[in-house]
């Protein structure tokens, strides 16, 4: 048995049935063996960066450790942004990267892959010998699942062709250690309980890391008389609770902004608290902020906090609840507030300004709210356009149905993450929001979407510009035409690459397009030409 065959066996032994990637000299025989001998599904992307993003989207929607593969040199180099996104999101992901022969430093594709992998993914596992290859695969999977985060499994091309030494036994999968919830220090628990006893207007704010602890946080809120809120990444976590304020941050809706501005204590659970969540200090200006997180380095790293509790969100919430007597705060948890939250319409008081040839993006999102299936995966890309669906369209983080890969601020993420999400959860349609500038960085993945054939509706909100840059250049007196581009027929491009597409310029056209594409049974694209002068201040 050759090394690449032993590695294929080891990968499959870890439960892998889907691999994303792009073929090259240093991984093509491994991929062929995975497909032909093991029946693994290979999703071939058109760009290595997109392939890793697809794997990331797959992992986020399934909870499984994803696998991608790229070739040596430029194959790994192109994937740097995607690896950085996965690292910041702590996505469990193994990237099998081919490498040039160590004995050929003048190889045209040679570069030092280890420091690059460490700077992007953060973890690097080299396969250094035929006798240890299977063990190294196990170490990579274990690291990806336990950290969690991406790991580059580095595989030199010449080593792949070596024979596994006679008598080498196939190692069993290296299983990750079972998670052990981090129990908080009792003194920190008592201090947090005391803060909740003496607060007048407390809020419990949950992030994506607190999703498994939603019930415990909800119980703590009810016991302490606190209101509930989430970060954008955990949107919808407390849907149905009468005192759920929704998303906190620059994308908060008006009632949420008003209430949060009056809080005197904000306790975060598993939240990457940053300047956007605090809306640059506007929301929590008069509040004491306490952060609960399993990672002590994350507490106060991006936004100052008065105190921190190192512990699992659920363990901490339950421990604090056990120390509290039930508290009634009728002035804070009032029937009037519950009624306002229950009936709030994000589209109230909006002055919509569509023209004959360009639709107000808010008018389009209102139609989305009416027509899109509730059971869906929502993916929102990065850019000015992303403010509209995040602010106005209800999405649920529960059941891994909301993906906003904003961790690194990289554009061009919407389409590849949508493909990965659709492959991971074929039982649910995917609706992805992307901008024209973002889509044009990776048009080739429309071909991937067509080949995969998954039910993905890609909504392209096209303002013929890099909208965020336009809005930042003009106030400084710099000509914003630097960030504007000619109109392009993106629907025609999509159709040329195999994706059915419709162009939307007004509300009637939007409704007709939804009539044509729903229910969603395969890929489709709506090229929505939006007014460029409708500004979302917070995005």
Automatic annotation (TrEMBL):
Gene3D superfamilies with a match to the protein in the record: 3.40.50.970, TPP-binding domain
Stretches assigned to the Thiamine pyrophosphate enzyme TPP-binding domain: 382-528
Tree of life domain: Bacteria
An MF annotation (GO) of this entry: acetolactate synthase activity
GO cellular component entries: acetolactate synthase complex
UniProt cross-references to InterPro entries, sorted A to Z: DHS-like_NAD/FAD-binding_dom, THDP-binding, Thiamin_PyroP_enz_cen_dom, Thiamin_PyroP_enz_TPP-bd_dom, TPP-bd_CS, TPP_enz, TPP_enzyme_TPP-bd
Keywords from the named record: Thiamine pyrophosphate
Domain Thiamine pyrophosphate enzyme N-terminal TPP-binding: from-to ranges: 1-104
Record domain Thiamine pyrophosphate enzyme central: where: 189-319
Cofactor: thiamine diphosphate
CDD domains: TPP_enzymes, TPP_PYR_POX_like
GO biological process: isoleucine biosynthetic process; L-valine biosynthetic process
Pfam family, one: TPP_enzyme_M
PANTHER family, A to Z: ACETOLACTATE SYNTHASE CATALYTIC SUBUNIT, MITOCHONDRIAL (PTHR18968:SF13), THIAMINE PYROPHOSPHATE ENZYMES (PTHR18968)
Family (UniProt): Belongs to the TPP enzyme family.
Protein name: Acetolactate synthase I/II/III large subunit
Name of the coding gene: ilvB_1
């Amino acid at each position: 048995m050759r090394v690449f065959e032993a590695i294929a066996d080891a990968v499959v032994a870890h439960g892998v049935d889907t691999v994303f990637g792009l073929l090259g000299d240093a991984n093509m025989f491994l991929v062929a063996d995975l497909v032909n001998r093991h029946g693994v599904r290979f999703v071939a992307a058109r760009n290595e960066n997109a392939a890793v993003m697809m794997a990331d989207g797959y992992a986020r929607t399934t909870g499984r450790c994803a696998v991608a593969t790229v070739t040596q040199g430029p194959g790994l180099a192109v994937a740097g942004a995607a690896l950085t996104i996965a690292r910041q999101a702590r996505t469990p992901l193994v990237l099998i990267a081919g490498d040039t022969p160590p004995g050929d430093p003048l190889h045209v594709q040679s570069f030092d892959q280890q420091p690059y992998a460490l700077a992007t993914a953060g973890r690097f596992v080299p396969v250094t010998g035929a006798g240890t290859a299977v063990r190294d695969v196990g170490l990579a999977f274990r690291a990806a699942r336990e950290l969690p985060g991406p790991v580059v499994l580095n595989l030199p091309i010449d080593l792949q062709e070596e024979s596994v030494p006679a008598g080498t036994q196939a190692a069993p999968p290296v299983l990750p250690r079972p998670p052990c919830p981090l129990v908080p220090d009792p003194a920190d628990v008592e201090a947090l309980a005391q803060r909740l006893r003496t607060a007048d207007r407390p809020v419990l704010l949950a992030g994506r890391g607190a999703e498994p602890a939603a019930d415990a946080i909800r119980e703590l809120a009810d016991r302490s008389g606190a209101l509930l809120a989430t970060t954008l990444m955990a949107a919808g976590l407390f849907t149905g609770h009468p005192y759920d304020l929704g998303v906190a941050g620059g994308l908060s809706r008006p009632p949420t902004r008003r209430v949060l501005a009056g809080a005197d204590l904000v306790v975060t659970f598993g939240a990457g608290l940053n300047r956007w969540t605090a809306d640059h200090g506007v929301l929590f200006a008069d509040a004491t902020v306490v952060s609960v997180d399993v990672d002590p380095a994350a507490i106060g790293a991006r936004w100052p906090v008065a105190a921190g509790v190192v512990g699992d969100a659920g363990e901490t919430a339950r421990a604090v609840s056990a120390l509290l007597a039930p508290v009634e705060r009728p002035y804070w948890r009032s029937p009037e507030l519950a009624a306002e939250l229950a009936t709030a319409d994000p589209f109230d008081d909006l002055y919509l300004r569509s023209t004959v040839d360009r639709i107000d993006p808010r008018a389009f999102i209102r139609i989305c709210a009416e027509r899109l299936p509730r059971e869906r995966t929502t993916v929102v890309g990065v850019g000015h356009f992303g403010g509209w669906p995040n602010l106005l369209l209800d999405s649920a983080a529960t059941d891994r149905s909301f993906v906003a890969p904003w961790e690194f601020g990289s554009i061009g993420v919407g389409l590849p993450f949508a493909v990965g999400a659709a492959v991971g959860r074929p039982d649910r349609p995917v609706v992805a929001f992307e901008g024209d500038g973002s889509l044009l960085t990776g048009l080739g993945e429309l071909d991937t979407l067509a080949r995969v054939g998954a039910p993905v509706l890609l909504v392209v909100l096209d303002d013929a510009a890099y909208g965020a840059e336009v809005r930042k250049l003009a106030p400084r007196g710099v000509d914003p035409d630097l960030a504007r581009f000619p109109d392009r027929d993106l629907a025609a491009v999509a159709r040329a690459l195999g994706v059915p597409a419709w162009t939307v310029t007004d509300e009637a056209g939007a409704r007709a397009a939804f009539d044509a594409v729903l229910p969603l049974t395969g890929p489709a694209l709506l090229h929505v030409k939006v007014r460029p002068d409708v500004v979302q201040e917070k995005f």
